[in-house]
Amino acid sequence: MTSPISTKLHGDVLIVTSNNPPVNALGHAVREGLVSAIEQADADEKVKAVVIICQGQTFFAGADITEFGKPMQMPMLPMVVDRIEQCTKPVVAAIHGTAFGGGLEVALASHYRVAVPTAKLGVPEVKLGLLPGAGGTQRLPRVAGVRRALEMAATGNPVGAKEAHDIGLVDRLIEGDLEQHAVAFAEEVRDVRPIPKTSERDDKLAEARANPAVFDEFREANARKFRGFDAPEYNIRAIEAAVAKPYAQGVQDERRLFMELMSGTQARAQQYFFFAERKAAKIEGLPEDTGTRDIKRVGVIGAGTMGGGISMNFLSAGIPVTIVEMAQEALDRGTGVMRKNYEASAAKGRMTADQVAQAMGLLRPTLELDALADCDLIIEAVFENMDVKKDIFGKLDRIAKPGAILASNTSYLNIDEIAATTSRPQDVVGLHFFSPANIMKLLEVVRGAKTAPDVLVTAMQLAKKIRKVAVVAGVCHGFIGNRMLMPRQLQANRLLLEGATPEQIDRIHVEFGMPMGPFQMADLAGVDIGWHRDPNRIENIRDKLCALGRWGQKKGAGFYDYDEKRRPTPSPVVAEVIEAFRSKEGVEKREIDDQEIIERTLYTMVNEGAKILEEGMAQRASDIDVVWVYGYGWPVYRGGPMFWADTEGLARIVEGLKRQQPRLGGDFSLSDLLVRKAEAGEKFTR
Ligand code: NAD
């Protein structure tokens, strides 16, 4: 087998080229090839300098993910980069595309870095629960400075080549042919002695050495973002070691911290999730040659909360949208909100005024349903009411052109029933966006009994185009995400009656890593969502709160009281309402411990997830996890509910559910699949 690394002599510069498509991942053969090339450079008297460059779309984009979880073959990357740095001839890394992770570590160990202006440099390891473990945490602050190194390593966000040049991470920006200019650069630095070895530099560490408070300042400034995650803190500690200790000791600290992360659950969870997200795009059981339908114009019905956000996704991707409302006022309000959202993005520098104009210019607002006749995809986002939806789909059947995809954004309703009102159920699909629809990454693609394969494939591809992560769900009440929300909400409500408080239940969920608990979520979304709107019909705590006008944050009161800055405090009124219901229903108040809350609100979700799997409503356990991480903010360091269940141990989940069963209510039943797997010692996700 030929090596992906080849060398050629140009004058007295040895050009070391990697050709390992698609992304020049640093697999075993590449690592081995790099070491031999450097050895060749050292041994060959004719060689006075070295250029490391990659063919194809990018510089080394990182580790070879197919080697994950397998025993590593020598030479390991830390040895490779050290060997590069020890080369007795100056080494220039010539960067295009993405120099990520191990790729940037190769570049940092090189003596010089040149890059094309479009290149990106970063150490995204933190996103997989790790740190750059081949000297990256020690070399990066020495080249880019401590602050920038902290940002790059602890957030994982890359910097562009121009910025990299400004901070000293890139020595020269190259316009024109990269190889040719890199060779010219190598010729310029050929005789510079001593050769600048990154590990021996400490000029950029001086500032942080004089002011070690930068680390705590950085921790504090990012406390919210890093909450619950191990890896950002480990990255910070490794860079702290770079500042506090000599290089040789710093790399030892880096290694130890790396190994600790590597053996922890969070890194496993985050790596699992990386693959889960990619797997979600695959639909089982479709013919290989399934085609797609062309989507040139999208129609959206309803310019409310969802319709506006949904439209923005397409406009931002350059796809024209026709949006239909019932009344001019609602139409103006809806399009006004869209414009305001775009302008807010522009104010934050995320888009230009031109881009705002361009996006809004692609929008055609109208009151005529007939205007949807030229749309290739029509998404209905009107009130959550079956009769209204049926009426609309009946009309669409008459209006839409043949082959147009007819989609509903319903949260709970039966897509098959909606499809049955048309003469073309094969063209009907659920596209369940999450609120705010222009921001949330998740899209549940609901596969009806008759949905055509090419409709599904088109939906999945379109999701990618509008930068969503799509998951296929079957037709059931609430699909994957909202269906699992129901047992959680039911138990949370029962727990209130039995003696828990909204604060206690929410605290457990936040400590677990959720962005908010069930009652904070209700207050944010609106306690009145789905309310029957009859203030005299009071059947539960929520009915009473709605009747009292406690509709949540928007009213300054819900399960909590809010001040003018929307800061919550526990509400004595709510405590009274709960108390009144408790005595009315004859429930005895008792102390409820945290573990019970976990078992009743989280274990029941896992149980529902297992049912979703056994009914075939999700294709795979990892899809459920993708829904919860991207749709509801489940902490990715716990992988998702099904991965988390595996780490808890399914036997323990079943045991907890059995212990709680008398309190879970009559509609609760254990999932057979969960019990079977627990008994067999199996897992959902591995
Ligand atoms: P909304 O009340 O904010 O908006 C609905 C809009 O549809 C209103 O502006 C209304 O005037 C318009 N409308 C009603 N009938 C119409 C008709 N025949 N023709 C044209 N326009 C019509 O509601 P929403 O929150 O945007 O929800 C819309 C759908 O999305 C519902 O099915 C809901 O379950 C679903 N959904 C909502 C959320 C959420 O968090 N709000 C999340 C996911 C899905």
Task: List the defining traits of the structure above.
3 domains, 29 helices, 2-enoyl-CoA Hydratase, Chain A, domain 1, 686 residues, 8-stranded mixed β-sheet, alpha/beta, 6-stranded mixed β-sheet, binds nicotinamide-adenine-dinucleotide
What does this structure look like?
The protein is α/β, with parallel strands linked by helices and 686 residues long. It has 3 domains: 5-263, 2-enoyl-CoA Hydratase, Chain A, domain 1 (Alpha-Beta Complex); 298-476, NAD(P)-binding Rossmann-like Domain (Rossmann fold, 3-Layer(aba) Sandwich); 501-584, N-(1-d-carboxylethyl)-l-norvaline Dehydrogenase, domain 2 (Orthogonal Bundle). 48% of the residues lie in helices and 12% in strands. It contains 29 helices and 19 strands. The strands form 4 sheets. An 8-stranded mixed β-sheet has the order 12-11-10-13-14-15-16-17, with helices on both faces. Strands 1-2-3-4-6-9 form a 6-stranded mixed β-sheet, with helices on both faces. It has a 3-stranded mixed β-sheet with strand order 5-7-8. Helix 2 packs parallel to helix 3 (102-109), helix 25 (594-614) crosses helix 28 and helix 28 packs antiparallel against helix 29 (672-680). The longest helix has 21 residues, at 594-614. The structure holds nicotinamide-adenine-dinucleotide. Nicotinamide-adenine-dinucleotide binds next to helix 14 and helix 17.
CATH architecture of the largest domain: Alpha-Beta Complex
- What Rg, in angstroms, do the CA atoms define? 29 Å
Bound ligands, named by name, code or SMILES: nicotinamide-adenine-dinucleotide
Oligomer: single chain
Total beta strands: 19
Distance between the termini: 33 Å
The whole-number mean of residue pLDDT values reads 97
- In the CATH hierarchy, what is the superfamily of the largest domain? 2-enoyl-CoA Hydratase, Chain A, domain 1
Low-confidence runs of at least 5 consecutive residues = none
Number of domains: 3
The main pleated sheet reads as: 8 strands, mixed
Strand order of the largest sheet: 12-11-10-13-14-15-16-17
Count of helices?
29
Structural class call reads: alpha/beta
User: What name does the CATH topology of the largest domain carry?
Assistant: 2-enoyl-CoA Hydratase, Chain A, domain 1
Coarse shape: globular
CATH class bucket of the largest domain: Alpha Beta
In what range is the share of β-strand residues?
5-15%
